Amino acid sequence: MKTIRLMISGRVQGVGFRHFTRDAAAALGIDGWVRNRMDGRVEALARGSDEALKAFRAACRQGPPASRVDDIAEQADDSVPGSGFFQGPTV
User: Fold this and answer.
1) What pLDDT score was predicted for residue 84?
2) Which of 10, 21, 56, 84 is most buried, by CB atoms within 10 Å?
3) Which of 33, 58, 63, 59 shows the shortest CA–CA distance to 47?
4) CA distance 31 to 25
5) How many CA atoms lie within 13 A of 41 on its CB side?
6) What is the mean pLDDT of residues 37-52?
7) Cα of 36 vs its chain's centroid, Å
């Protein structure tokens, strides 16, 4: 299992992006969280198999219909999130 942190930029707030991300993670069996950032980005921490994380990245790149993803910055993370995937508060 591997953990990654994604910082997603573009039109990603106010378009259902966090709900979309939460549903995609649940369907892929990924643990972690997603939250809005005050700077307009969406941040996600995701832990899962390489295959699940690859599919999760692809889902985040697509986003829901009203979104537009301009960039996804990714970094490895040592965090071990709890079980499940949840939507956190804006930071």
Assistant:
1) 93
2) 21
3) 33
4) 7
5) 13
6) 97
7) 10
User: Can you give the C-alpha Rg of the chain in angstroms?
Assistant: 12
Joined tokens for residue 77: 């993370």
Catalytic-labelled residue, pool 18, 22, 41, 47 = 18
Nearest to 24, CA basis, from 75, 62, 77: 62
Which residues have CB under 8 Å from 89's CB, separation 6+? 35
To the query of whether residue 61 is one of the catalytic residues in this protein, the response is: no
Name 90's Cβ contacts closer than 8 Å, sequence gap at least 6: 35, 36, 37, 38
Structure tokens at 13: 């707030």
Kindly report, residue by residue over 47-61, the tens digit of the pLDDT. 999 999 999 999 999
* 36 flagged as catalytic: yes
